[in-house]
Amino acid sequence: AGGTAEARFPAQDDAFARYANPQLAALPPEQQDVWSKIITLALSANAGKPSEKYLKEAKTLIDALGADRFKKMLHGWIEFVCKVSDAERDPNTYRVLHPICSINQTTLKGLVWMCSHFHDSTTLSALTQLALHSYEKIPNLGARYASVGNACFYALFRSKGLDGIACLSRLRLRIKFSNVQNAIAKYLDEAAAQRGVSRNEIEDMAVDSFGLQEGCRDYDFGGYTCRLAVTGVGKSELRWFKPDGSPQKTVPAFVKTDYADKLKKIKAAQKNLNATLTAQRDRLDQMMRSEHRVPLEHAEQYYWQHGLMSCLTRPLVWQFFRDENDTQGKSALWLDGTWVDETGAQTDVSGSLKV
Hints:
With 355 residues, the chain is an alpha+beta fold. Helices cover 52% and strands 13% of the residues.
C-alpha cells in the first residue's frame, strides 16, 4: 500500500525474529517504513565500530520515528534477548542454534550502536544487562554474543555525561574475560584523556550517589515515607514510615495501586545500588593493592562526602601523606564525625597533600 516497506528482521526463523517481527508488523505503515530503513542500516554493522556517517544517518531515522518509540521497542527486545532460553543443538547436525542467528546478531549490534545517542538511565541499564548477558560463558563456545557485547561498550562510552562511564567501570569488574577487561580499560582511558584526568579519577567521578545522605534516601508517598537504606556491601532495604513518623511494617496498600510505577522505579534503583556497592567495594580492594594515592580534596569529594562511596570508605583506615617525600604517612580513621589516630585521639589531617 502506497509503496511502504514492510519492516522485519532479515532472518525470520530464529526465536528473536519470531518475537520481534509480529511487533513490527502490527505498527502503522509509516512507522514500519522508518523501521525498515533502520533495520537495513543496522544490518550494515560489520565493522568493529560505527562510522560518524552511520551514527548521523541513524539519528535522522530515529528522529523521524520518534526517539521514545525507538527506545521503547528496543528495550523490549533487549529484555527478551536477556531472558530467552539458551542455545540448543540441531538434532541432525549438532550445530549450536542460538536464540539469535548471526545475521540478526549483526542487526542487533547495529541497533545497539544507535543507542550512542541516548544517555537516559533506562537505556544505559538495558545496555549494561545486554553486555553482561552477551559475555556470559557458554560451555565449549565461549562468550554468547561477543560482537553485541562490544557494541554495548561502545554505546556506553559514547553516551553523554558520565553515567555510561560508570556502567563501563562496573562491567570491567564483572566480566571476567581478560581481553574484555582490556577493551573496557581502553574506553575508560580514552574518556579520561578527553577530560584531562586519570582513569581512576574518571571512575571516581562517574560513581552515582543515588541521592543518598548518610546511607539513606527518602521518597514521599502521599505523606508516607519510603526510606531506601544501605545495610551492607551490596545490601539495602526499603523501610516504610507513617505520616507521624512511626514505622509501617508493609508497603501501604494505596502505594501498590496509586504509585505502582514510582515504586517499580525505586526497586530498580535499589537493585542498581546494590550492584554498584559490590562493584565499588571490589574497585577499592584493587586500589589498596596498587597503593593508589589521590589528592586530599579528591578523596573528600568522591570518597568521604559522596552519598554512596562514604558507606564503603568511612569504615576504612586511611593513610595521610604531608608531601611527595613522605613515605611513612599517618593513619587515621573516621569516627563519630572526626578523624582519630590508633589511640582514639583526635588528629588533624587537614595539612595532608595526598591520601
